[in-house]
Automatic annotation (TrEMBL):
<keyword id="KW-0418">Kinase</keyword>
<dbReference type="GO" id="GO:0005829">
    <property type="term" value="C:cytosol"/>
</dbReference>
<dbReference type="InterPro" id="IPR005715">
    <property type="entry name" value="Glu_5kinase/COase_Synthase"/>
</dbReference>
<keyword id="KW-0641">Proline biosynthesis</keyword>
<protein>
    <recommendedName>
        <fullName>Glutamate 5-kinase</fullName>
        <ecNumber>2.7.2.11</ecNumber>
    </recommendedName>
</protein>
<feature type="domain" description="Aspartate/glutamate/uridylate kinase">
    <location>
        <begin position="12"/>
        <end position="233"/>
    </location>
</feature>
<feature type="binding site">
    <location>
        <position position="16"/>
    </location>
    <ligand>
        <name>ATP</name>
    </ligand>
</feature>
<comment type="function">
    <text>Catalyzes the transfer of a phosphate group to glutamate to form L-glutamate 5-phosphate.</text>
</comment>
<feature type="binding site">
    <location>
        <position position="139"/>
    </location>
    <ligand>
        <name>substrate</name>
    </ligand>
</feature>
<feature type="binding site">
    <location>
        <position position="151"/>
    </location>
    <ligand>
        <name>substrate</name>
    </ligand>
</feature>
<dbReference type="InterPro" id="IPR011529">
    <property type="entry name" value="Glu_5kinase"/>
</dbReference>
<keyword id="KW-0808">Transferase</keyword>
<dbReference type="GO" id="GO:0005524">
    <property type="term" value="F:ATP binding"/>
</dbReference>
<dbReference type="Pfam" id="PF00696">
    <property type="entry name" value="AA_kinase"/>
</dbReference>
<comment type="pathway">
    <text>Amino-acid biosynthesis; L-proline biosynthesis; L-glutamate 5-semialdehyde from L-glutamate: step 1/2.</text>
</comment>
<keyword id="KW-0028">Amino-acid biosynthesis</keyword>
<keyword id="KW-0067">ATP-binding</keyword>
Length: 259
């Protein structure tokens, strides 16, 4: 089945994009992701965007060329970069006269009932008034002990909170493979049935640059989402121009039968 067909039956879609996909030499991808969000919105879908990129956006501004391991520096960079990142989204969305609405979350926000309910209400209201919710981890206040660690996990939690139908995980690779794609004989997996433990494949958990996610985190996020009845499309950011209109390589994680 094509990705466009996966999305056609969805009422609510969460799109997750990582730092490496929209910063540095890949900055132009931000407009392409906004374009996809707009097309889905015009097709009657409610769209939620989970976007990394705050720290990676700020680092070059103060002369850093690598990810800082110092928590206070990372928090400061997140504070600087989140404003810059939202400014980029605001300018891109202005092409469609579309407003962004920012929501910053920590693990505690979604683990505690009162703040989780409040986050859900804010999200629902933004969608009702036609605003694009853009969600990121609140890295300026999150600590090493309570951080999501990667926005794949955050996206899965948001998809469950919002009772989304489909979660789109945009990655550096176009699908889940039977082995790291660089290895000879690695084959793409088109469909992962619900509950499949994937014990027959070899998955790398490495990451580079400013991102903290890898194949392992995406698998964990897919399992978390599908357990809550959310189908998951894993594909590459390079496919974003045609994911909703044409066939592109991807892996579909089948959700549990009921939410």
């Amino acid at each position: 089945m094509k990705t466009s067909e996966r999305l056609a039956g969805a009422r609510r879609v969460v799109i997750k994009v990582g730092s490496s996909s929209i910063t540095g030499s890949n900055e132009a991808n931000l407009d392409r992701i906004v374009d996809l969000s707009w097309r889905l919105s015009r097709a009657g879908k409610q769209v939620i965007l989970v976007s990394s990129g705050a720290i990676a956006t700020a680092s070059p501004l103060i002369g850093l060329t690598a990810k800082s391991e110092d928590l206070a520096t990372s928090q400061a960079l997140a504070s600087i970069g989140q404003a810059k990142l939202m400014g980029r989204y605001e300018r891109s969305l202005a092409r469609y006269n579309w407003l962004p609405g920012q929501i910053l979350l920590t693990v505690d926000n979604l683990d505690q009932e009162a703040t989780s309910i409040n986050a859900s209400r804010a999200l629902e209201r933004l969608l009702e008034i036609g605003v694009l919710p853009i969600i990121n981890e609140n890295d300026s206040v999150a600590t090493q002990e309570i951080r999501f660690g990667d926005n794949d996990q955050l996206a899965a939690r948001v998809a469950a909170l919002a009772q989304a139908d489909v979660l789109v995980l945009l990655s550096d690779v176009d699908a889940l493979y039977t082995a790291p794609p660089s290895e000879p004989g690695a084959m793409p997996i088109e469909v992962v049935p619900y509950g499949d433990e994937l014990s027959h494949i070899s998955v790398s958990g490495t990451s580079t640059g400013y991102g903290t996610g890898g194949a392992l985190t995406k698998l964990a996020a897919a399992r978390m989402a599908t357990d809550q009845g959310v189908g998951v499309v894993l594909t590459s950011t390079a496919n974003v121009d045609r994911i909703d209109t044409d066939s592109c390589r991807h892996t579909w994680f089948e959700p549990a039968a009921a939410k």
